[in-house]
Inverse folding.
């Protein structure tokens, strides 16, 4: 190739380069727009995905309502030994003089009947030693020693999740006890006690407490309708049919002042408590 040919080739290369640069300059804005649009689409797509994902989680979370409480089983899954040892630690001054129950070889089978003979009628209670033997042992002991005689059922609740008549305090104001405490038993000491809420069914009997473990004393509550509670109240028996009729009569009269929680509208006094 001579110099003239080389010159022509160089001019052609320069021309091609210039045309290529022009095309690049002309298409550059389009590329920028395209790339910007693509970036926006990616961003929007990400936002839509995130929003959709978050929305799905929210729906799932919103649809996970609290489980409906189950009715507390009236028996243990695993039976206790035939006898147990109980502890009843001292706890302040007794509202009424009484001795402590026996602590060794306490029966953990069978039932004991305690009848509350009230001014409103009899309330028979079938106490189940197989579920809460230390509690039944203590309640029967207190009844035998006339701890409950001539005492009022000081509290009644209704119109909501708690429907009970509470008894067992000789002082009559909810602060009194026997001078010792009872251990928590069923369902607190069993796997059933792991649930957050359970239904203590109509007719069931459970121990009151102060809200901390092992603080039961002499006070108990009678469920005249289902009550939804944490499973931290020792269940220990059932009210018989006659007792439920008496409770229904008491409940129909309502609560003092039309309240949802307070003293019964008409006094309920335990005249005697007998064990059979």
């Amino acid at each position: 190739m001579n110099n003239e040919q080389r010159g022509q080739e160089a001019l052609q290369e320069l021309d091609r380069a210039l045309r290529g640069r022009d095309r690049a300059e002309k298409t550059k804005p389009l590329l920028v727009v395209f790339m910007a649009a693509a970036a926006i689409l990616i961003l929007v797509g990400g936002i839509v995905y995130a929003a959709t994902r978050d929305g799905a989680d929210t729906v799932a979370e919103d649809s996970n309502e609290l489980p409906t409480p189950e009715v507390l089983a009236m028996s243990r899954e695993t039976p206790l030994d035939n006898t147990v040892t109980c502890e009843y630690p001292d706890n302040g001054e007794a509202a009424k003089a009484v001795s402590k129950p026996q602590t060794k070889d306490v029966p953990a089978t069978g039932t004991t009947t305690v009848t509350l003979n009230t001014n409103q009628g009899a309330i028979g209670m079938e106490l189940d030693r197989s579920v809460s033997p230390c509690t039944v042992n203590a309640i029967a002991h207190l009844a035998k020693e006339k701890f409950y005689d001539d005492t009022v059922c000081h509290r009644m609740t209704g119109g909501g999740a708690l429907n009970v008549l509470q008894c067992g305090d000789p002082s009559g104001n909810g602060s009194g006890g026997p001078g010792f405490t009872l251990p928590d038993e069923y369902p607190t000491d069993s796997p059933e006690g792991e649930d957050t809420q359970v239904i203590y069914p109509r007719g069931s009997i459970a121990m009151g407490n102060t809200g901390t473990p092992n603080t039961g004393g002499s006070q108990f509550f009678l469920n005249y309708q289902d009550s939804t509670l944490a499973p931290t109240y020792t269940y220990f028996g059932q009210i018989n049919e006659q007792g439920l009729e008496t409770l229904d009569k008491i409940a129909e009269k309502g609560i003092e002042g039309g309240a949802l929680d307070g003293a019964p509208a008409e006094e309920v006094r335990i005249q005697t408590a007998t064990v059979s």
Helices lie at 3-63, 133-144, 241-252. Residues 70-275 form a domain with the Cyclophilin fold (CATH 2.40.100.10). Residues 2-64 have pLDDT under 50 and may be disordered. The first helix runs from residue 3 to 63.
